[in-house]
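Extended Data, panel c. Modelled sequence:
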Amino acid sequence: MINPIKLIRVAIAGLAMLSLLASAGMATDDAQVQEYVLWVGANAPGRADHEANIIRQALQRTADDYGPFKLIVSSETSISKHWRQLLAQGERMQIAPTSLMDFPPGEITLIPVPIAGGKLGYRNLIVSKQRLAEFRKVKSAAHLSHYTAGQGSSWFDTWVYEANNLPIIGAPELSDLLIMLAQGKIDYLPLSVDETPDILAAHPKLARDLVVVPDLFIYYPLSSFPVVSNRHPELIERLRIGLEAMHADGSIGETGRDAISQETLANCSVIALENPSRLLPLL
């Protein structure tokens, strides 16, 4: 005759073992999900969302070979001055989009596939409504040199304006620039055509006295590339494969595609500036 107490003990032990196996299985599954942090810095929502979506698609394309992933998008601005060092360390972040190409050798790898090209270099001019008539007369870089622009202190674009002898003042945050524009401390604020609507919508009180100068753009060659910490070689290879596949079939697209058309450009004044770093798409 089977001892019922012994039977219960065996059953309890069996259930405990099943629970441990299930927990181990869950831990194994969780460990297989690669977690990556993409730092988009102070990029406006339009550009940040576009680039994050491209990175996410590239990772998804390689999921069969490299496994599932979780992409965390960070826009923390307090680390703007140290993002390259943090990226090289590969702990707080692993990926970042940038227009720069000069990095410490052996620390960061640039994947030479542009994730935001072409129209990324087109800029709207944001001005005070009271000065709109004045700025509608601006047609050249020489004329623009009489006015002072505002840009983010850590934005690459600052070098472009300086190289073209256009006066410029930097500020840490976009809200600071909008306040400076409203107070007359700067004369205009150049913003990417695909970022402008989101920026103005996000600051309605500051933007209510501001306006986009119609039929006028600033343009300089500009693109954006993903850079990855060398401490994650598998991620470098994964992103390269995914992005090259997307570039080959034309699915990357570009920011600003819906914000500006060739027909619009044909009927506008475009002030072309030189980009001193010549950061053109490599593919």
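The first strand starts at residue 34 and ends at 39. This feature is highlighted in the accompanying rendering.
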